[in-house]
Amino acid sequence: METVKVYVDKILLGVTAALFLIMVAVTTWQVIARYVLSNPSTITEEFIRFSLIWLSMLAASYVVGKRSHIAFTMISDRFKGKNKVGLELFIQSAFLLFSLAIMTYGGGKAISITMSQLSPSLGIPMGYVYLSLPVSGLLITFYSIVNMVQLLKKDKTTPMEKWDSVEYEKAGEVL
Amino acid sequence: VLTMIAGCGLNAKAGDQVVLRFAYASNAPPVKEAMAEFGRLLEEKTDGEVIVKYYPDSQLGGERELIELTQTGAVDITKVSGSALESFSDRYSIFGIPYLFDGEEHFYNVMENEEIMDPIYQSTSDLGFVGLTYYDSGQRSFYMKDGPVESPEDIKGKKIRVMQSETAIEMIELLGGSPTPMSSGEVYTSLQQGIIDGAENNEFVLVTAGHGEVAKYYSYDQHTRVPDIVVMNEATLNKLTPEQREAVHEAAEESTVYEKKVWKAAVEKEKQMAIEEHGVEFNEVDNTPFKEAVQPLHDEFKNNEEFKDLYKAIQEMSGQ
Amino acid sequence: MILQASLILALVFAVLLAVGIPIAISIAVASLATILLILPIDIAVFSSAQKMIASIDSFSLIAVPFFILSGIIMNNGGIAAKLVDFSKLLAGRVPGSLSHTNVIGNSLFGSISSSAIAASTAIGGVMVPLQEKEGYDRKFAAAVNIASAPAGMVIPPSTGFIIFSLISGGTSIAALFMGGYVIGVLWALAIMIVSYIIAKKRKYPVVTEKSNLNVKKIVWEAVPSILLIFIIIGGILTGVFTAVEASAIAVVYSFILAFFFYKTITLTQLPHVMAQAVEMTGVIMLLIAASSLMSFAMAFTGIPAALSSLVLGISDNPIIILLVMNLLLLLIGTVMDVAPAILIFTPIFMPIATGIGIDPVHFGIFFILNLCVGTITPPVGTGLFVGSSVGKVKIEQVLKPLLPFYAAIFVLLMLVTYIPQISLFLPNLLGL
Ligand code: NA
Ligand code: NA
Question: How many domains is chain A built from?
Answer without folding.
Answer: 1
